[in-house]
Amino acid sequence: MWIWIAIGLGAPAGLVLGWFLFLVVVMRTGSARGLGVVRRFNRRVTNRRVMKTAGRPGATASVIRHVGRSSGKAYETPVGITEAGDSFLISLPYGTNPDWLRNVLAAGAAEAVHEGRSYRVTEPELVAAASVARQQSRSERLGQWLFGVDTVLRLRQAALEQ
User: Fold this and answer.
1) What is the CA radius of gyration of the chain?
2) Is the dihedral of CA 136, 141, 147, 149 positive or negative?
3) Which tens digits make up the pLDDT trace of 38-72?
4) How far is the C-alpha of 23 from the C-alpha of 56, rounded, in Å?
């Protein structure tokens, strides 16, 4: 009986550890195939769950609202936002090529929902993670190091919307 309990507890733990190691290797190497797998999984599973609470006070994720470059369609993407004075910082674990990022850079503005408040954000700028490290928490810097993140998006807060 104890063997079945050990298997029942060990198998899920092994799967979680295996997925985590896969994530670390894929993110650090920038493997296009691996990133595709991670993006599809996040789009279909993780993002749908995270969006249920994203942007609310105390939530682990915020929301960036942006418009498609060619479609003109409105989109919402969960992101991790760090406040840095009158700016927001968003780590870019997938690099500088995700569609949401290209949409925000092309438009030059977006809307961020963070801690229950909506902000108009402008002047998107890609900066080196090392240059803003002092403005980020220790856990944020650890995550960037672990996943090999070297670029951060800085957005300036414009007028606060209610």
Assistant:
1) 18
2) positive
3) 888 888 888 889 999 999 999 989 999 999 998 99
4) 27
